[in-house]
Design goal:
Strand order of the largest sheet of chain A: 5-4-8-9-10-11
Largest sheet of chain A: 6 strands, mixed
CATH topology of chain A: Rossmann fold
Strand content of chain A: 35-45%
Structural class of chain A: alpha/beta
Order of helices and strands of chain A: HEEHEHEHEEEEHEHEE
Number of helices of chain A: 6
Oligomer: homodimer
Chain lengths: 194, 194
Amino acid sequence: MKLLEERIQKDGTCIGTEIVKVDSFLNHQLDTALIRALGEEFARLFKDEQPNKVLTLEASGIPIAFAAAQALGDLPLVFAKKAAPSTMTEDAYTADVMSFTKGTVSTIRVAHQYLGPSDRVLIIDDFLAHGEAGLGLLKLVEDAGAKCVGFGAAIEKEHQGGHKRLEEKGIRVESLAVITSIKDGVISFNSKDL
Amino acid sequence: MKLLEERIQKDGTCIGTEIVKVDSFLNHQLDTALIRALGEEFARLFKDEQPNKVLTLEASGIPIAFAAAQALGDLPLVFAKKAAPSTMTEDAYTADVMSFTKGTVSTIRVAHQYLGPSDRVLIIDDFLAHGEAGLGLLKLVEDAGAKCVGFGAAIEKEHQGGHKRLEEKGIRVESLAVITSIKDGVISFNSKDL
């Protein structure tokens, strides 16, 4: 998606060879119109898979997943939690997810009643890097007996292998901007539509 | 807002006298259309204050604040973070916020470049209870030299005093559903528009 690639080139910041920081429009301050456009693109890509629910992981996946759920005709959106508040007393599907940027392992969880065998789940996240979050979310869907109809990421870092790991599980993966390398402050893309 | 009060009566769950759990439509699974309606109501209430930015706290404030920012003409939305990822290396405005439901204190933060003296900030959150999160967010705005033009909560628990604490700071507070008591599983509202 050219709009997103151009924005990453303009406002993204490289940290080493592994991290692109997009805090000014996607991860801390949000460009509302851009995020709505990302949601509409996910809806275009995945509507034929007939999802009936969108799943994401708190926190930075939420706005993009909300925009996608809205564009898909106001589907319910479930966000997996990284910690169990005292109000979350019911049984939950869980998965352990490592964050490479935070250096921590979180147990992500969705309460049983919000995922089930009748669900066709579209997973949406902001980044696809090593695939840890995606695989964790996929485990929640599978543990619930639901079907994952696709995984959509706003930004993929192709060289970190997450796309391949998810495809090996039989999941259709669509990323709106695919970064192939980050080197000396230069971000290279695999641009299908340029 | 009658729509929200009715939904809380129908799908909210009381825990003791302090907590109303709204996980099925606002806090874990999200009713996308309802949340857009909440955003539109906040826009109607606050548009004359001419905010140029919306501020919230991760994670469950994000979808409602996104909907409000969208309805206010695609304003930028900043969400304060509860932990500093390794990518957040710049200076930040910070405040300590106690969560009564989680029993923890978090240091919330917004990087310096996303709040400044030219900003007219509308703060949006899902709940207004004791006012801890609201006061913390207000401190970030004030530390940045920005102006807070209002605070909007989807659900207020009036008996926990947060509304009064924010008003004492000179802030206009608007809550879309105002709960006055939770007792024996019965939720009572202060319904302005019923």
